[in-house]
Amino acid sequence: MQIRMSDVARRARVSVTTVSHAINSTRPVAQETRDRILRAARELNYYRNASARLLVRGQGDSFGLIISDIENPFFPELIKAFQSAARESGFDVLLCTTNYDSDEARKAIQRMMENRVLGVALMTSQFDAALIEELVNNGTPAVRLDSGLAKRSVSDIRLDYSRGAGQAIAHLQALGHRRIAFVTGPNSRVSAVTYTNAILQALAEAGLPEPQIIEGNNRVEGGAEATRKLLAGNPRPTAILCGNDLAAVGALQVIQEAGLRVPEDVSVIGCDDIAFARHTTPALTTVRIPRDELGRHAFLSLFKMHNSKARRSAKLTVETELVVRRSTGRALGSEVLS
Amino acid sequence: MQIRMSDVARRARVSVTTVSHAINSTRPVAQETRDRILRAARELNYYRNASARLLVRGQGDSFGLIISDIENPFFPELIKAFQSAARESGFDVLLCTTNYDSDEARKAIQRMMENRVLGVALMTSQFDAALIEELVNNGTPAVRLDSGLAKRSVSDIRLDYSRGAGQAIAHLQALGHRRIAFVTGPNSRVSAVTYTNAILQALAEAGLPEPQIIEGNNRVEGGAEATRKLLAGNPRPTAILCGNDLAAVGALQVIQEAGLRVPEDVSVIGCDDIAFARHTTPALTTVRIPRDELGRHAFLSLFKMHNSKARRSAKLTVETELVVRRSTGRALGSEVLS
DNA sequence: CTCCAAATACCAAACGATTGCGGCAAGCGA
DNA sequence: TCGCTTGCCGCAATCGTTTGGTATTTGGAG
Question: Which residue in A55, A264, A302, B55 has its CB near the most CB atoms, within 10 A?
Answer without folding.
Answer: A302
